[in-house]
């Protein structure tokens, strides 16, 4: 062993660096760079990172004779060749490589953080949007305000006794055949369509009917204690419009009922529309008249709407005549312009004579009243019988049942019956003349007796 140490060749081989342990910067270290580059290429979808040109390692990086302290790169290559599935990061990297990897990771994290922030922002928007919609995803603007339930189309069972009729409801509920059929249907199947109510302004524990007066009355007649209802939160004018529109679907509505309903809706529409603002007035904005809107909604002319609404200005006696179809609508509309006292006088004259004024006479009454020249005599003349009415043609017709008891013979002709009738009338006339002559004699005798006493 001592002789080997003295051998100069052995020292030369030991001092010379091994092939696998070449100092950095030499050609033998290039495979390590290839490994690093291969690791960078193996990273999926990374943004290109600008790398600074690697400077060759200085000569003093590894001291001569101490090559064993340098990290061995060759074994790493061998491990990569044997086990390609292992991560290449198992081999220690240079400080420059560590900085580059750290910068690359920072670039990778940056878009992820931005995406996360964006995701949080989007989730916040979705939360706000969800707050503005209901459980079914319906926007808040399109959701009906249902008191007590809070969901669209919610139906609750309410006691019938806690629901009052709508104040001023113009549509009467009658116990006719249709009502009897409705009562039988309620007894068998119940109320199939819920009614619409609002909270009572006088008592918060009570409700006011908006649509469903007939169903409520039918439940009362059928002995049903509860009725399905939708409680809506709406102002008074909106409730009036809803009530009128829902009841105008009925058939055979009388002119007087239409008059009251149209009047209520027109007043509500005017209050909701309000007056145009100053800016609208300066811009020349002219809103559509309420009666024009109502005419478009109902399909009737504006003139018809105006005539019907005038009927509410009539006195109750005249309104009853319109309801009974005794007084025409056009004549009643003209009569509505008369003063209350004049209308009462006309109603008394109509009842007394059992005759209504014609359309021309009603128009004359309107003009005379507006001019302040209408008198009681003129009112009486409008319903006084005409000459034709005073001298009606006299025509009498007898049926066979009426005449047969007086003419039992089957061979009696019409001429024979007429002759007998006129003979009877002649005898009657003679009897009336004798009675009249006798009455005059008695009157003359009384006058003579009174003259003698004087």
TrEMBL record:
Residues 29-55, 65-133, 437-454 have a biased composition (Basic and acidic residues). Residues 156-248 form the ParB-like N-terminal domain. One of its GO terms (cellular component) is chromosome. Residues 1-137, 433-454 are annotated as: Disordered. GO terms for molecular function: DNA binding. Belongs to the ParB family. This is ParB-like N-terminal domain-containing protein.
């Amino acid at each position: 062993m001592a002789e080997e140490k003295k051998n100069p060749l052995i020292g030369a081989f030991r001092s010379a660096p091994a092939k696998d342990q070449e100092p950095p910067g030499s050609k033998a270290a290039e495979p390590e760079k290839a490994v690093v580059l291969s690791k960078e290429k193996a990273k999926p979808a990374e943004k290109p990172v600008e790398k600074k040109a690697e400077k060759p390692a200085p000569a003093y990086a590894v001291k001569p004779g101490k090559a064993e302290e340098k990290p061995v790169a060759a074994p790493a290559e061998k491990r990569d060749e044997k086990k390609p599935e292992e991560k290449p990061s198992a081999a220690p990297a240079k400080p420059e490589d560590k900085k580059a990897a750290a910068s690359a990771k920072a670039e990778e994290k940056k878009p992820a953080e931005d995406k996360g922030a964006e995701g949080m922002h989007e989730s916040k928007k979705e939360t706000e949007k969800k707050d503005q919609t209901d459980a079914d995803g319906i926007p808040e603007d399109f959701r009906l305000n249902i008191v007590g339930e809070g969901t669209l189309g919610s139906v609750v069972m309410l006691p019938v006794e806690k629901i009052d009729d709508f104040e001023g409801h113009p549509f009467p509920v009658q116990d006719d055949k249709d009502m009897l059929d409705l009562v039988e249907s309620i007894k068998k199947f119940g109320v199939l369509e819920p009614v619409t109510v609002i909270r009572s302004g006088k008592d918060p524990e009570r409700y006011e009917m908006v649509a469903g007066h007939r169903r409520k009355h039918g439940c009362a007649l059928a002995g049903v204690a509860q009725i399905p209802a939708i409680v809506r939160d709406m102002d008074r004018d909106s409730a009036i419009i809803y009530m009128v529109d829902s009841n105008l679907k009925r058939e055979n509505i009388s002119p007087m009922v239409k008059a009251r309903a149209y009047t209520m809706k027109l007043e509500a529409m005017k209050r909701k529309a309000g007056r145009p603002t100053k800016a609208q007035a300066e811009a020349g904005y002219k809103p559509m008249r309420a009666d024009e809107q109502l005419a478009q909604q109902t399909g009737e002319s504006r003139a018809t709407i105006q005539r019907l609404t005038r009927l509410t200005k009539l006195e109750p006696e005249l309104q009853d005549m319109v309801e009974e179809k005794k007084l025409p609508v056009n004549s009643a509309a003209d009569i509505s312009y008369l003063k209350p006292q004049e209308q009462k006088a006309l109603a008394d004259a109509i009842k007394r004579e059992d005759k209504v004024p014609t359309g021309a006479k009603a128009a004359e009454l309107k003009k005379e009243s507006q001019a302040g020249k209408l008198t009681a005599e003129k009112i009486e003349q409008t319903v006084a019988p005409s000459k034709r009415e005073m001298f009606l043609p006299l025509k009498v017709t007898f049926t066979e049942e009426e005449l047969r008891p007086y003419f039992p013979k089957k061979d009696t002709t019409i001429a024979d019956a007429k002759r007998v009738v006129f003979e009877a009338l002649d005898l009657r006339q003679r009897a009336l003349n004798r009675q009249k002559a006798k009455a005059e004699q008695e009157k003359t005798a009384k006058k003579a007796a009174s003259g003698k006493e004087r």
